[in-house]
Amino acid sequence: xxxxxxxxxxxxxxxxxxxxxxxxxxxxxxxxxxxxxxxxxxxxxxxxxxxxxxxxxxxxxxxxxxxxxxxxxxxxxxxxxxxxxxxxxxxxxxxxxxxxxxxxxxxxxxxxxxxxxxxxxxx
Length: 123
Description:
Layout: H1 2-24, H2 43-54, H3 72-78, H4 90-95, H5 106-117
């Protein structure tokens, strides 16, 4: 009697586990939006919003560089954060470092990379 109940419980647990595993599989995979390297990236319209949403909680004036709107361009250019080649710039190397990488999406990292590649204009 006890063995039958144990077998039934094990069977139910296995069935529930199998259903959960099957239902958790995705039919479609998420593909992040592509970032056009030839688009004319703008500090004001494209890059500053990334800083606002992901960076200024720490880099809002107390920790360099100051990435607040109106300050970010001077802080980045005078502090040698945006240099060529873009992949070697301090800004890009920082945002892809393990401590910073979860704060920005892959698309945001690419936007910043392309903005630096295009000369990091104050536009």
